[in-house]
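Worked Example 4.2. Read the sequence first, then its structure tokens.
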Amino acid sequence: MDTIERGLDPTDLSIIEILQQDGRISVSELGRRVGLSQPAASERLKRLEERGVIAGYRAMVDPAAVGLGMMAVIRLRTTHEHIRPYLKQFSEMPEIIEVLRLTGEDCFLLKVLVPTPSDLETIVDSIARHGAVTTSLVLRNEPIKVIGRDLIRKAAAR
């Protein structure tokens, strides 16, 4: 199955890549870059949004610029009975900005932003009540790669 069969043509793939790099681009500039008129680009964009391919637009905030200079990754191993309570707890903790539920030995991988080591200690202590915790400080956070046409084509080929 190729991308055309999934309803994504090369122009759609270009739009997806461009928007991941610059979500504030004007529709007319987007159209210019992909060789479409503004109305045609607008219609493509609307279709991608309606299909859920483009799930939203967000500002990228520099954590250090707002006083959150410490990032950590916390791995948690717990029992199945604590999964739902932990999910609820994580949703109520603004410091936890990403939650990944895992297979294997660890149950969760959490991405945490805090201003100080003592704030991180508070987070770790509150999480460690029902399971083993491993914490790693992030030295540098590399930019997130875009979901590009090569990856989309690979997925479509399966």
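Now turn to a second chain, presented in exactly the same format:
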Amino acid sequence: MTGVAAGAVNATSVDAVNGSQLYGVSQSAADALGGGSTVNSDGTISAPTYSVGGTTVNSVGDAITNIDGRVTQNTSDITNINNTLNNITSGGTGIKYFHANSTLPDSQATGAESVAIGGNAQSLATNSVALGSNSVADRANTVSVGSAGNERQITNVAAGTADTDAVNVAQLKASGIINPNGTTNAAVTYDHNADGTTNYSSITMGNGAAGGTTIHNVAAGTSGDDAVNVDQMNSAISTVTNIAHAANNPMFAADGNRDTEAAVASGTHSTAMGANASATAANSVALGANSVADRANSVSVGSAGNERQVTNVAAGTATTDAVNVGQLNDAIGSAVGNLPAGMTSKAYTDQQINSVQNSVSQVAKNAYAGVAAATALTMIPDVDQGKTIAVGIGGGSYKGSQAVALGVSARITENLKMKAGAGTSSQGTAIGIGASYQW
């Protein structure tokens, strides 16, 4: 039947309907189903496609069944959550095994990876932890249990075993740092470097106070770097030869005021011995009070207006030996009255002058050897600060003359120091002794 007009569509209509009206009904049903459902050419409706919880279904019934299963699971999960949180209350009793009772502001954890627990607790630095009300952790990688003026004790600490473990008071008492009554012992500790690290090579006794600290009951040292006691020091001093043990029997003696008449050796490798003796030139030697050696490589036994005779001079034998007056008189007498046969006075004079020159040369040789010996003596280092006695050897060379020296220096007390030595060369031996008192 064709050409059918559209009938009325309502609850009381008895009109016939045409094909377009039926298509509209089918389209409305397809639109209501959704899921891509459409009206086929034969008027049927294609099945929809729904994705529910990752599962694809093609009917409303299957979709509802899937949703119902997921709702059931959610209901179970919510029940479990309720059971987990059933110990949270609003009366301040907190979560089970975790409680806080405070009216302070909330805690703040502003540092990266930080934790703050407790009323107004603040962890401000990276990886810091603040535990307890008003605790402040403002340094990286630290745990704070209080704040300035609000410190807390940490109790019931087990004894530490690893290097990075905390130690308890019992461990400190066992180490001797803490007394049984809890006060700190006056222990000797290492000094600190400028950057705050421990200086394991330095210990200051008495906190650096003037006068120092006496150490009693010191055992006799056995190794080279051990401390020595007074008995050891006195024994060592007694073995040093050529040291005056009593004022009435000195091996060496000098008169003068060391405070106002000190000898001065300012020239390179120079030596000065005697009150106000001065050796200012290089490699010079001044012997005796007020002697001045101001020419390089010279030995002076006086000064301008304060000359000295050199007495008891043995007759020179080598070409560089000094000659005495007897040798000089003999030489002059021989030159004047006993000329060898066939020798003119000039030749004889030249011969004697050469002899004198040889004698002077020998004197110079002796002086060179003496300078070498004195130089060797000066090369022996003194005893260092903190040491008691030092034994050393030195060497010297000057204008072909060589010498070696052996010396000992000892620190008798904190302020008194003594030194003795002997130098030997091809021309003889030189010995010396000295002492100084410092305050």
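Notes for the reader: The first strand starts at residue 50 and ends at 52. Residues 66 and 212 are 92 Å apart (CA to CA).
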